Amino acid sequence: MMMPTMSAKDLSKIYRRGSEEVRALDGVSFEARSGEMAAVIGPSGSGKTTLLNIIGCLDNPTAGTLSVGGEEIFGGRKELSEKELTFIRRRIFGYVFQKFYLIPTLTVRENIMLPSAFYKSSAGAKSPDDVMKLLGIDKRAGHLPGELSGGEMQRVAIARALINSPKVILADEPTGSLDSRRTGEIKEILRELATQGMTVVMVTHNLELAKAADRVIELRDGKVV
Amino acid sequence: MNIYSVAYKNLLRKKTRAALTAGGIALSAWVLATLLGFNRGYENGLNRDIDNMGFQVLLTAKGCPYEAATLMLKGGTGLRYMPESVVKTVYLNPEVEKVTPMLMQGVFDPNKGENGAIAAYLGVDALTFPAMKGYLEFKQGGWFKDNNAYEAVMGFEAAELEQREVGDKLLIPGVDKELAVTGILKRSGTQDDGTIFLPIGAVQKIFGKQGKLTGLGIKVRKDADMAAFENKLYDLPDVQVVSMAQVKTTIMNLVNSARVIVLGIAVIAVIIAMAGVINTILMSVMERYAEIGILKSMGAMPLDIFKMIWAETAMLCSVGGAGGIFLSFLTARVSESAVRYFLPYAPNGALIALDWRICLFAFLLIVVGGLLSGVYPAWRAARVRPLEAIRIEGEQ
């Protein structure tokens, strides 16, 4: 049987708000395999983004374990430092955000190559031309973000996430700023990435997008239901 | 694609703001380079003027020379004289290499300027004066050969002002004596350009000052003890010793006092520009708070972000600094005219002497100052926590 790419066990996250203890995640466990698209759904405040931040190494869990590709990342040891988390993020993850966060003065090609200004993947950075072709934006290479549609901007953001050959794509409301036609296009692209062997984990409110996922993790009050 | 090209593109986002900040830096660089150039130019000019006098010590008749100069300018009277015999007395000193006697006279010329002005004539010795002023070259003609001839040699500017050429006549107003112009000097960049030289014997005769001098220029041997020699001269009766080194020091002390104030103003200008840099870069960091968080989520280390923001500061300061220095070259002549207008005494030649050392110093000072100003915004940016930045953006 194939090993899961991502395995989370009893992940918890407790925040302190004054004297009050807020349990944002409460013993969340799930697995996601390579080639799989997983959707995290749930009402606002259910812990979706907190879960995405922890599995994306943007934050430490309070308790629980997380391993990716057989490598234990969080496992009851001390909290990882910002630097350690950055090293892990570089090697494993590509991020896609609802608001794209493209730099307005960089062309499409330059935006896609932006991560490589800070880090060159040891797994080998992809060619920006190949990535643009894969996402159907190769004809827009020299354009600035202001000249693109919302769907095209999200494609550029996905291309930027792919440039350093990540194992896992994490997407936070990737279609939140798009109309239904563009949502369908992005869904197909994420599906295609999973087909190519990547693990795609997305947080979404969009049920159509969630239905396209191989695995749905529904959260409520920080727990998987 | 590297951090520096990203930094450059970041600056292009708010072009007007970046241009205004660079403009502020350029102004401070302009002030700094111009003032440093002025310091250098003034000192060089003063040294040149004094060195080109050809002598290190000037003997004048007792009485304040400044007072005498003022009186002379007001009406050509009040000059004090010393006897011609002082030449021999001074020449007997072993420290003396050469001496040259001078007799300055001034007369009111009603045709000069709008309301008339003083026309000054310097009587010089035909033998010793040209030898002491070896740097003077002729545009036309040459020196008078006889100390009693009614001839004149005109400085470049004096000849232009009077519109005279060699062979022309020159009338001394008031005494109605006509002189023949025997030579026109080339421009020397010194006070000699505005002087009319006459043979000393002729001046004594025309103005009835036989056996009298207003000054004696003394060139001292290179190995001589200047202080000891000056002390000897102080013992001479009815003469005043003016050491050119002392004159230079006195003027430079005055200029240095002004320089401290002016450099203080330049430092304030630089500090204001640096405050502008901090404000601009900090504002830019705050506006890009979420974006910086995203860059960190993509794998940028705090040092990468620090370098990127610092590079933006360095680029702004480099462009502004270089622009300001270029501006100081462009406006050097205008600045010089303004300085000459306000200064009571300005030496001849270029008053604002900009060279590569001054430019490099001003540029480095601006860039280093800018980089120091950029440390805080860059540090703030480097400390942005990706999670916090994304959360704040999400709440907006």
Summarize the structure.
By secondary structure, chain A is of the alpha/beta class. Chain A has one domain: P-loop containing nucleotide triphosphate hydrolases (Rossmann fold, 3-Layer(aba) Sandwich), CATH 3.40.50.300.
How would you describe this protein?
The complex is a heterodimer of chains A (225) and B (396). Chain A is α/β, with parallel strands linked by helices and 225 residues long. Chain A has one domain (34-60, 78-224): P-loop containing nucleotide triphosphate hydrolases (Rossmann fold, 3-Layer(aba) Sandwich), CATH 3.40.50.300. Chain A contains 7 helices and 10 strands. Chain A has a 6-stranded mixed β-sheet, with helices on both faces. A 4-stranded antiparallel β-sheet of chain A has the order 2-1-4-5, with helices on one face. In chain A, strand 9 and strand 10 (223-224) form a beta hairpin. The longest helix of chain A is centred in the C-terminal third of the chain and has 16 residues, at 180-195. The two termini of chain A are 26 Å apart. With 396 residues, chain B is an alpha+beta fold. Chain B has 2 domains: 3-49 and 251-395, no CATH class; 63-237, no CATH class. Helices cover 56% and strands 17% of the residues of chain B. Chain B has helices at 3-11, 15-51, 65-75, 86-91, 128-132, 156-162, 200-206, 226-234, 244-287, 289-297, 302-330, 332-342, 356-382, 386-395; strands at residues 57-61, 82-83, 96-109, 117-124, 138-141, 151-154, 169-172, 177-185, 196-199, 212-213, 215-220, 239-243. In chain B, strand 3 and strand 4 (117-124) form a beta hairpin. In chain B, helix 2 runs antiparallel to helix 9 (244-287). The model of chain B is unreliable at 71-77 (pLDDT under 50). Chain A binds chain B through residues 49, 53, 56, 58-59, 82-83, 86, 89-90, 95, 97, 99, 101, 103-106, 110, 113-119, 160, 164, and chain B through 1-3, 5-6, 9-10, 12-13, 290-291, 294-302, 304, 385-387, 390, 393-394.
